[in-house]
Amino acid sequence: MAVSLKKKLVTIYFQELKYLMFQQIAKEQNRKTAELVRDAMDEYLENHAAEKKAFSAWKPVSLGGLKDGAKDWISKDYQEEILGSAF
Question: What is the pTM of this model?
């Protein structure tokens, strides 16, 4: 299964002081704050992942496992369930 390298827009709530600190560090390094947040996420995953599993081994907690006959989590087997009427 191929994993997309596109960026995903997310909303994150920070404590104001911590965000201001990130902004200051970004300014000092001539970088964007969002870039520092992405780097922090990458570092966390590298250093704190309990088990380094392939993406294909991940399972959404709420679904409880693949449906019989489904080969992955992004196939048409789950599109309606995940996306609902938006699909």
Answer: 0.51
